[in-house]
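User: Here's a protein and a ligand (cytidine-5'-triphosphate). What would the complex look like?
Assistant: Let me lay out the input and then the predicted complex.
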Amino acid sequence: MSNLKEKLIKALPVEVVDTLKLCSQAAEEFGVRIYLVGGVVRDLLLGRDIFDVDITVEGDAVDFANYLANGGFGVRLLQVQNDLRTAKLSFGDKLEIDFASTRIESYPVKGHLPVVDSIGVSISDDVKRRDFTVNALVLSLNHSDFGELLDYVGGVDDLQNSLLRVLHEGSFVDDPSRIIRGLKFSARLEFSLEPETLRLQDEYLSRLSDFDISYSRLKSEIIQTFSLNIPKAFELFIQQKLYRFFVSDFELEINSSLLKRLIDCYKPQNIWLVYLGCFLVVGDCKFDLKKSEKKILQDLKMLFIKKPPFDNFSVYKFYENTSLESILIYYAMTKNKSALHYLDDLRDVKLFVSGEDLIAAGFKPSCEFKKILDLLLEEKLSGALLTKEDEIKFLKFQIKQLKK
Ligand code: CTP
């Protein structure tokens, strides 16, 4: 196996490297072995930026965290989770590191959160609970072999071949969110599913109704994946029929690059929902949505029910109060130019005056208010450059007409 010590030192800020060395020394004294596992090792080997370093303790992470916190190392214990035996420590002002105990997990209810069967197992057993071989690589932080790469599952070969391979046949049944994680890594790392993993995924998707699924876990992975705004993720979602989590069939042609361009240009808040929304016009969103997310889907369905607009005023009214995300999806699906006309030219047209100005002009509140204000809006949308004074004049004129 190769030693990645130099690579690790180059990839991490000096204070993180110093902290890892401090932990290494403390682990030696305390008599446990500690490791980096998962995404951080994968990203180190790929030469990608590393943002987060978690330490896995082959033993009880809480005991080790207490030793660090009480050992005069200038370390503070921030948080402990007793059931999972995890702890968070702060080193100095800025650096916080999570410590996890090695563990074996099982899925008594397939498709839902795992339960911990055993804590403090060997590191080679710990990696068996993970999603893909490339996420099960281990890097030793121990004094005797600091930086040594440990590969118990063939992750290095898969990494070299840009392949995502599950560790066992039941991986997707245990945790279907791994299907979306596979999509995320395919898009972000430009990896692909190795043939047997793809077969297991196909088999799972073709028998979806046989399985129980935690849609909240799925949602979190979908948000992460589509928020990357990588068209490839959308293409694979269709190609690999991952939409089956929501709809049984999908035959529309939607240009993924167009979706990306629309997102880059109009910057909606819920990028992920612009992608996923394309499948939810007809399908069911099976996970809980926030109020604002629900509105996007309701707006989208409304746009498809209403008659498409033709002049500026009807375009304005058609899209007014409609969420940006739903307008973008509607455009991507229908290419109805009115959507971009609204966003580019009309949505910022606002009246200076309001109902209060009508009252000030001597008009009693009535249902005519809206009519008059709409007449004024129509005038403005046709391109008239009106100042507030012009608008008030317009209101007074309309009131006179009404009184005649
Ligand atoms: N993991 C898993 N199954 C999941 C989620 C996570 O096996 N459903 C394991 C993987 O070994 C993963 C590690 O837990 O590497 C950490 O998870 P996470 O932080 O979500 O993923 P990373 O691989 O670190 O990827 P990212 O770069 O997106 O943070």
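Summary: The first helix runs from residue 5 to 11.
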